[in-house]
Amino acid sequence: MTEIFKGSFTQQEPIPDDGIAAALEVMRSGRLHRYNLAEGEIGETGLLEREFAAYLGAKYALAVASGGYALATALRAVGVGPGDKVLTNAFTLAPVPGSIASIGAVPVFVGVTAGLTIDLDDLAAKADQAKVLMLSHMRGHLCDMDRLMAICGQAGITVIEDCAHTMGAAWNGRASGRDGLIGCYSTQTYKHMNSGEGGFLVTDDDEVMARATILSGSYMLYERNGTVPPPDMFERVKYDTPNVSGRMDHLRAAILRPQLQMLDSQCAAWNARYECVEQGLRGTPGLTVIDRPTEEKYVGSSIQFLLLDWTSEAIADVLTRCRKRGVELKWFGGAEPTGFTSRYDSWRYAPSEPMPETDRILRGIIDMRLPLTFSLEDCALIARIIRAEVGAVWQAT
Ligand SMILES: *Cc1c(COP(=O)(O)O)cnc(C)c1O
Hints:
Number of domains: 2
Radius of gyration: 21 Å
Structural class: alpha/beta
Strand content: 5-15%
Distance between the termini: 24 Å
Oligomer: single chain
CATH architecture of the largest domain: 3-Layer(aba) Sandwich
Shape: globular
Bound molecules: pyridoxal-5'-phosphate
CATH superfamily of the largest domain: Type I PLP-dependent aspartate aminotransferase-like (Major domain)
């Protein structure tokens, strides 16, 4: 009998009941805007900022409208402007180069290793080309952050971290997003907390936080934020920092606060699913599992493997066979951008030099989501299906 998987790869868990109750409370109050507060009230958004900053051990957190907005705001807050070059990963998601392009800056792509992290040798070679690195921890893979920070420190490069897939992760005991000057997070539906759309920016830097707060659309009400730098910092920056509205509202903050309380246990649940699939795939001929470094505490909300040096036809065949059995795999190597996947050479607004080693890896990356609505039995079944179909195509070629 051929086993078929019947679950949905895009079905997330419901919002926790206490989040729904808090959201109803906000709606009943009518005060949805973050700066619409009763006397003495901090509000859901301000409280969420305090709690998120505390979770990460950061001085400041700013809740915003999306992860992509957090990235663009971070770039603006450190003074990146039109025509400036910004180093970033060749393997990432479109909103990352998009955030750079959105302010008229120019992405300079850095290659990817077989471990799916930024190629630090390539970074060192390109370190003289830009003053800022937008580092994307794509699909939750953390590079050697100790070496990366040493390279960037030596070259005088400011690091902004895109932690859309590493909320709850850590390198060598340091929370992801805390090595760079700024860490950016997303609370879009497919990330680690779900408010539909949303994001955060965290930093310990007074000036960055003051600028980011005004950029986010605080008007001159910034003292109502959850975590606020000293007043004289605002006096210094408030006349030359534009207001680019992208605030988070109380409604989203209300449904996020209970999710933050559950984040660590959710991460453990993802990792149980990840380890189950990984175990099921290990040893499949022709398939390369991504080994995770011991310094990395990851969050397995998705899993990747490589079909290295396979032909496009054979990879397409595996994807079709798996889809027929209910398993949705994504291929980052396809020449045409589809769904969420695209390659650095798909972003034609940002011209790039070909990177043969990176292209070889990209052509082989297969990606799969692991929503928490999957049981461990589901995960074991999915792994059996992938193993069988990869094996069948491998044998035929
Ligand atoms: C989702 C995502 C973002 C941006 O988040 P949005 O909230 O969708 O704007 C940035 N980087 C990566 C790698 C992502 O997956």
